[in-house]
Amino acid sequence: MKTKQILFCLALGLGATAEAQNTKDTKAPLIEEAPVEAIFVPSGFDDNDNVEVVIHGTFPDACHRVESAKAEVDKAKRRITVSATSIVDQNEYCVQSLTPFIQPVSLGNLEEGSYQVVYANNPEVMESLAVDRRKTESPDDYLFATVENAYIDVNRETGKQSLKLQGHFPHYFIGCMVIREVRVVRDPVDVLVVQPIAEVVTTDVCDTQPADRSYEYTVGLQEPFQGEGLLHVRTINGTSLNRFLNIP
Prior knowledge:
Distance between the termini: 76 Å
Low-confidence stretches: 6-11
Number of helices: 2
Structural class: mainly beta
Largest sheet: 5 strands, mixed
Radius of gyration: 25 Å
Shape: globular
Order of helices and strands: HEEEEEEEEEEEEHEEE
């Protein structure tokens, strides 16, 4: 056999060996039960809403993420069982740093009444959910603004808190969307439910809006929020925006 052929065969053999070694060393993603510590249950859902709850927990690092979250509804017992799994790439190096997470879980339309929501892997994690009778045939009682980001800003000098909403209004052929009022309700104690009530107008205010219809809206909070909780903002078309709160 010629020298070049021998070298080529050796290279192929070494390559195959290296590939087999890499395949052997590579670990499959690890899927396990998500470490859920609490279930946040926003108030104000009707029997024609897409009802949702939000699970909260803490991962041991920043590489874990929620792989799936679902719920089973027992209508007869009025009991909702939530389950969730997490996933992590075992081949990725990760700094060990506690990382809080939240994950919305859609429950769909529920009949009017009271329910118990429990986490399947830890029955001690349980909350109550109340679904009211619809006031309108629309999933939303009002027209809500499109909100893409929301957070609470704390003035370090005065300690006063302000709610900041950011987003882009939809484009209309005639008129424009404006925020008429922002309602903030703390119900339950660890959840801030925000309703950015909007309307479509045909006034001169439309000429003052940026070309991309971007906006930032600020509203002061009468009662400061402290500790861990959920910022739940109702948005257009029956959707919501959820942010984890942790304010010392």
